[in-house]
Amino acid sequence: MKRQVDRLDLVRAKLKANEDTLEGRVQSRTSELEKAMGDIKTLKGIITICANCKNIRNGNGHWETVESYIERHTEVQFSHGLCQECHYALYGEKYSRFKTAQAD
Question: How far apart are CA 44 and CA 30, in angstroms?
Answer without folding.
Answer: 25
